[in-house]
Amino acid sequence: MTSQNFYMSQRWRALALTFAVVGALALSGCNAGGEPNQTASPSPAATESVVPSPTPAPTATAAYKPASASGPAENVPVPMLPEVAKTETKEGLEAFTAYWYSTLSYAYETGDTRNLATISGPNCVFCSGLREGITTAWRDGRWVNGGKIETPAITAEVNPGLSASAVVQVLQQAMEIRKPDGSLYQDPAAATNVGSRAGATFGETGWLIADLGLIR
Predict the structure, then answer these.
(1) Which residues contact 152 (CB under 8 A, 6 or more apart)?
(2) Rounded to whole angstroms, how far apart are CA atoms 20 and 50?
(3) Per-residue pLDDT of the chain (216 residues; tens, 9 = 90+)
(4) Pick from 9, 27, 64, 211: CA 20 to 30 A from residue 52's CA?
(5) Could you tell me if 1 and 197 are in contact, meaning their C-beta atoms sit under 8 angstroms apart?
(6) Would you tell me how many other CB atoms lie within 10 Å of the CB of residue 47?
């Protein structure tokens, strides 16, 4: 798995609404040339006119730009946890596992591992290693080009009294680490297609990946 190769290589190679309201304008007048004691007829009140509030323009979303040899990715979409992933079910663990790997992929693209840390158990050594490797890759102005992850197949087992786990097909793109001047920091890592097993626990905060390893 490239994520493992990446981690190990780092350790070993120097790792408004705007409301517009127009009130009614009451117009009144007097008969300047009328007879004494004659009261002028009041002018009819102007019809109230309300200008409809303009519909707020949708907030423009900055376009996603993948990384390249010229610079890091920009405006990377943040993965969102599906509602089903909050349930202690087979479907819930499968959705959560897909979310976990999407969050890992986001970390590779941005260097931000904070969300990954919150959904990984404290005793998941491999999870910690991945975060450390990503942090090292992005240190000193470097960035990661490539390395995006997809999980086309996930099968989970959730049974009462037994440890929950998921078998995952993990596809990862080839990956480079670029220095501030755009040159390579080390040899690129090739694309991979591997199997992984993720152990998981369900608690007050939901699912956590408790263990992670390759299927050999």
Answers:
(1) 169, 171
(2) 8
(3) 444 443 334 433 333 322 232 233 232 333 334 443 444 444 444 444 444 555 555 556 799 999 999 999 999 999 999 999 999 999 999 999 999 999 999 999 999 999 999 999 999 999 999 999 999 999 999 999 999 999 999 999 999 989 999 999 999 999 999 999 999 999 999 999 999 999 999 999 999 999 999 998
(4) 27
(5) no
(6) 7
> Closest Cα to residue 158, out of 83, 115, 97, 205?
97
Q: Which residues contact 84 (CB under 8 A, 6 or more apart)?
A: 91, 92, 95
pTM for the model stands at 0.74
113-to-119, 136, 176 alpha-carbon distances in Å: 10, 11, 18
> Which residues make Cβ contacts (< 8 Å) with residue 129, sequence separation at least 6?
4, 7, 11
Q: Are 109 and 67 in contact (CB under 8 A)?
A: yes
> Considering Cα of 151, then 196, then 208, then 104, what sign does the dihedral take?
negative
Answer for the pair 66, 76: CB distance below 8 angstroms, yes or no.
no
The CA distance from 142 to 184, in Å, is 9
Q: Looking at the DSSP assignment, which residues form a beta bridge with residue 163?
A: none
Can you tell me the distance from the alpha carbon of 67 to that of 175, in angstroms, rounded to the nearest whole number?
10
